Hints:
The chain has helices at 14-18, 28-38, 63-69, 85-92, 107-114, 118-132, 157-170, 186-199, 216-225, 253-263, 271-285, 292-296, 307-315; strands at residues 9-12, 45-50, 77-82, 98-104, 138-144, 174-179, 204-209, 230-233. By secondary structure, the chain is α/β, with parallel strands linked by helices. The protein has an eight-stranded parallel β-barrel with strand order 1-2-3-4-5-6-7-8, surrounded by seven helices. It is globular and about 75 Å long. The two termini are 34 Å apart. The mean pLDDT is 94. The structure holds coenzyme A and zinc ion (ZN).
Amino acid sequence: MKHYDKRLFIQEVATRDGFQNEAQFIETVDKIAMVNALSQCGYAKIEVTSFTSPKAIPVLRDAELVMQGIQRNPAVEYTVLVPNVRGAERALACAIDEANLVMSVSESHNRSNLRMTREQSFAQLEEVFGVIGRGPVAINVSLSTVFGCPMEGDVSADEVLGWVERFAQLGARGVTLCDTTGMAFPSQVEALCATVRERFPELQLTLHFHNTRGMALANALAAIDAGVERFDSSLGGLGGCPYAPGASGNVCTEDLVHMLQLMGYTTGIDLDQVLAASARLPGLIGHEVPSQLLKAGRRLDLHPTPARVTNMLQQVPSALINV
Length: 323
Ligand code: COA
Ligand code: ZN
């Protein structure tokens, strides 16, 4: 028997995963206004920005200004992407709630994204754990290409579990399994999530899907079937990875929440406010977003019946209607 009355936790990543892929710089005030609007939507977490090298990702070069400029809602955790010790020091100076560390479980993807071997990445991140310590700032580790690498193909479950284990031993509060380029499919997701939950029940587990091949919503449902409660998603379906060929947007927040709410899940999200925020995105970034809900409206946003149909219906004997 499936239960659809569970509480799920939605984590917004548009201002990090989404904005990092935009060619044009988005004004700092606009980023701050967007995070402030998102802070009122009921998210469990917001990934505000990224403390990477400004040369690598110039569009997020204003990370400090954004973190210091936002009005925080105490009900929301504010997390940021941290690639190395320098990033950790910059982030800690901005009173973050959580640092989201990142490395790839695929050697080729790690080299192209972070310009290091996986072992070099692990050693750097180990240092980051040392800098952050076991104080009030939590550490999450996002593992990229868990469900497949665009250069190497499938990554074995043992490989993934090995990296989860190493970070759990370092003291990570949580781990995010990232389908960086939309290679995951539902049965694979269900199996891996079930194994990770069984092996690491104490870890806060998040799933991070991209909709590159149209499977993101199906994958989210498969993850829920395996007991997963937390999802990264992106307003408007923005997102991608600048270092992964063919990558496209994250699972779209409003599409995901709309589906989950229809099914009876509690998400804590105010969908009206999310849609209002999403409607502001094209003006901010200068192009349309993949969101389906923004185009089609909610399932029961009904349209007026055209007059010619109403007239026709009036002429048909009522017994013939609704057959
Ligand atoms: N914040 C600010 N500056 C940083 C930095 C950080 N976190 N990390 C490195 N830098 C600076 C260094 O000071 C150095 O500056 P200089 O050229 O003026 O001396 C320059 O960047 C190069 O530093 P180096 O240590 O050689 O790093 P790198 O060039 O190999 O970059 C990363 C390593 C990981 C920081 C960089 O590749 C990166 O940020 N990549 C983006 C990864 C990412 O966010 N991907 C998308 C998310 S999955
Ligand atoms: Zn992503």
